[in-house]
Queue: 2 jobs
Job 1
Amino acid sequence: MCGIVGYIGEKKAKPILINGLLRLEYRGYDSAGIATIEGKEIKVIKNKGRVSELNNINDINNLNGTIGIGHTRWATHGKPSSINSHPHMDNSNNFSVVHNGIIENYADLKEFLKSHKYTFLSETDTEVIPNLIHFYYSTSTESGQTKFLKAVIDACKMLKGSYAIEVLSTYYPDNMIVVRKDSPLVIGKGKSENYISSDIPAILSFTKDFYLLNDLEFAFISRENISFYDENLNKITKEIKNITWNAGDVEKNGYPDFMLKEINEQPKSIRETIGSRLTLNSKVTITDLNLSKKYLESINRIFIVGCGTAMHTGITAKAIFENLCEIPVEVEVASEFRYKNPIINKSTLCLFVTQSGETADTIAALKLAKSKGAKTIAISNVIGSSITREADHTIYTHAGPEIAVASTKAYTSQITLLAILAIYFAEILEKNSNKINELKKDILLLPINVEKILKNTDKIKEFAKKIYKEKDVFFIGRGVDYSVSMEGSLKLKEISYIHSEAYPSGELKHGPIALIENGVTVISVLTNKLLLEKSISNLQEVITRGAKTFIVTNQKLTNDFDEVIQIPETNTLISPILSVVPLQLLAYYISKEKGLDVDKPRNLAKSVTVE
Ligand code: M6R
């Protein structure tokens, strides 16, 4: 959580930092701040609240420096307040730091520093960092740039936890040092200028050439040069990666919000995720994945692990893998998986699904699976993200940057890719070729079918107007329809703050039906032909108890429901890719009716980089 940005070049740093922070705000928006070097001083402007509010502080207009750092905060240690905002200074006012992550041993470090007469202004864990740097700097026997670099390295050696940090010093007004450990950080290379950011989209309008830092790689940055060092002060070489995303991908392009833009981008993101991997008359090919029949035959279990929406894709994909590959699949929430000592060995294949590739629990779960001998495959949307550097193999969704906190196009791209992966396995294993051809046809039709759904949104908008004041909403479904209900329910609570639960329809009578009373809204997805009659009976039971019903279906229904959204028919295994779209839109329109900030829901951040 938290976003950090930095600039060093010939232009004024302030507008570049503010622009970057506005793009990083989805990572946290409790407070914001920037620091620039102004002559011999570091000037800090920071405040509780949104990035845009920084512009209301008069002094901000006096910042002319061409080197600076910035931060947008998702509070962990210390409530959102001006004093707890970043950047933080050391006691001598010569070092300034912004930090994304958590310093787990900050209390011990504070005691250590207090014993050396350091004092603290904030309640944050971060404030120990500039003071530690000062401590090592003032006791150093080094000279020149090495003195600065060594002080930062020594300070980092004391830190336990996760961090991406940027350091400014009045002693080195033309340099900046950055480092990361278990928190994201990228460096964008320009001409006589360099940019630093927690993620690529925030600085994509300035450069497409990036250095991706690994853990404990230190970058010593000037306008012209970037030198990289390991923690033993050895120089290392790093390659530049050219990123193919367009700057326009990170703009709203006429949409009122990123979420609506991203919902509407799904035909494109699904099409690009399919790419040339899947065609009708040849076998699936997945670049960089070369698994043998012998290996696939040796697998006796697949785990699919992720958090939130990414985990929901696993629930849908479980049925696809089990159906086509006949290998048992378990789906786990990453934060549970990592602490439950899962039974894993070299016959287990573990898939880790994460849009950002930075989710702390998912990365930790992958490291655990690897340490137990499993082969690991990451499914990610962000090139070079942290998880891709840990996994044995990475397969990318090509959804383009997803900016809204609520995940939409990532979900549909992830299921598409997992379905393609299941077909890839089944073809190698020579299983279920009869089912595969039909499924391939339907996968290729997905973009057109999503387009059809997106053309008919009026009824969804109308229904949102009817129910936006509700306190509780229930989602019910069977099989794949239950799996997509979980995602619909998450979207609704996330951006509209309406409490909602998803239940398997057949579970209603085992408890939840006690909550159904006159006027309660029940949303149901009905795409599973084989279970249609049973699902309709369950709906009848809630209607009898006074429920309002919103149905998403690809079947011809004759029953009397309050609203029915018709979607195209497709293979049941992948139907959530279509049925989720009306649920995403319903959550979106309800949030709009309530006048909420759709893209930045309260308390949430896009990438959860701490536990
Ligand atoms: O970046 P990831 O896919 O690892 O993120 C996982 C979850 O934090 C994410 O899907 C979250 O649940 C979304 N905000 C849901 O819309």
Job 2
Amino acid sequence: MRTSQFLISTLKEDPKEAAVESHRLMLRAGMIRQIASGVYTWLPTGMRVLSKVINIVREEMNKTGALEIAMPMVQPADLWKESGRYEKYGPELCRFKDRKQNEFCLGPTHEEVVTDIARREVKSARQLPLCLYQIQNKFRDEIRPRFGVMRGREFLMKDAYSFHTDKESLAKTYQDMYDAYSRVFTRMGLEFRPVEADTGSIGGNHSHEFQALAEAGEDTIAWSDGSNYAANIEMAEALAPEYDREPCADAYSEVATPGCHTVDEAAKALGVESEKVLKSLIVHGNKKEDGKHELVMICLRGNHELNEVKAIKIDGINDPLEMATEEEIAEFTGAHTGSLGPVGFKGRILVDRTADKMSNFACGANKTGFHLINVNWDRDVPNYEVFDLRNVEEGDKSPDGKGTLHLRKGIEVGQVFMLGTKYSEAMKCTVKDENGKDVPMIMGCYGIGVTRAIAAVIEQHHDDRGIIWPESIAPFKVAIIAIKPSKSQIVKDTAEQLYKQLLQAGVEVIYDDRDERPGVMFADMELMGIPHIVTIGEKSLNDGNIEYKLRKTGEKENIQASNALDIILSKLEK
Ligand code: ATP
Ligand code: MG
């Protein structure tokens, strides 16, 4: 490709809207442009990368025996009503009506549509297992689209769905997908970890996420230094402490803590560490007959964070997790949020495992501006239930008992689920078992965030000059920069010849024939992350050389002009 025939859309200035490196560089390198919040056009440079990633995904999916299909983005609401998700999915699901007032939605995921296909097309158990996949745009009306294509509203996903008669077959396909995902992300040059994951609104009971390690990641993963244990922090179990409570001291007493709203403020006022203060939150429980919610107190050690995913898994807690309002709290306890505590609380009390081991602690008095000190469980709070409710922290013991946990930030680039029969049961997607009885198919589903994974690659592979593409997904493998070809016939001829030779050898090459200042051309090729850059100038040519630079390391060398093709070919990854 000649730059004169290509659309180079590089930007000199840093776009203001970009908060992370990948977003900044995708805009600056001319890969993407936003047309509405979270909705992007892929320009030619970006599209070349996207096509490569799509090819890798497709090749690896096909290797597993999965069959490619194309499902529509527009989906009838009726299917979603059958599965029960039309009401449940919330505002991320973009719902609309056609001119005849039929209800539709834009697919955020395709379990319903694919289950409908399977129930109509699969006539016999002998046709199973079956795995169908597509690479297709999804729409999710994300509450906070951000970081460019990392969290877009319209984005490209590879989604696959498998159908089985038995769990063993599901387990095999799950493993095949897991292995295929590992190959996809390895081929893309990502450093990633598969981690145990929550199943969220998709459902199911067993799941792994593939997390690309990067500081810009929105997820936190916990991994053990003594075993293979790795999990999304949403799932990572915090073990109960091994120590016992200390003996109770004197009876509790009330202390004025005017103006203290947070645990830290209360700890300071009381002259203790925040670890000695109980954090008490009030959340919504089940809805009562009067339409109001029951109020449930959650107690954590003062310096611990509530884990919402763990909380909503407890029976009787509203999903999604909702904090009680100031008004509800005032009405129920008579106090402000900063002065809450379990002593005398009239509702259900859920206590985290570590908070359960606290003794002689401080907590709010359920009286605005007052705390209690020397409070003890059982003696002062007779009724409470103990659960794992907090986020694990750096240094916690690994839940498998082996090693210590550490935390890293991750970008979720894929997720695999064992779904079970959630959709097949609701939508009557059945096959006959050996006794002739109709039984629901057992399902798995598997997603890769194709566009997000590209942003993740950039987060891991860039420097202050731009993107550093792994060769496997670079928009071009080689860039040829000709210095002032209009002024030097030999430069022009050499560049043209090398360009043609590389094309003939099947190498994806971009030939910068713009006749711009060398610095401008070089900056663009580096920004666009082209792995191998050769510069052809008259001075070096007079010595029989052209200049070669490896983008990844910045190493430069002079290579023989007469032998340039072979030398460059030898530098390309096989
Ligand atoms: P997240 O927790 O980040 O919102 P998710 O768990 O809801 O994602 P899945 O339903 O598992 O997403 O979708 C499969 C894959 O699609 C994800 O692993 C992710 O890589 C990608 N993905 C999900 N939401 C987005 C988005 N808003 N923008 C870009 N990619 C996304
Ligand atoms: Mg997910």
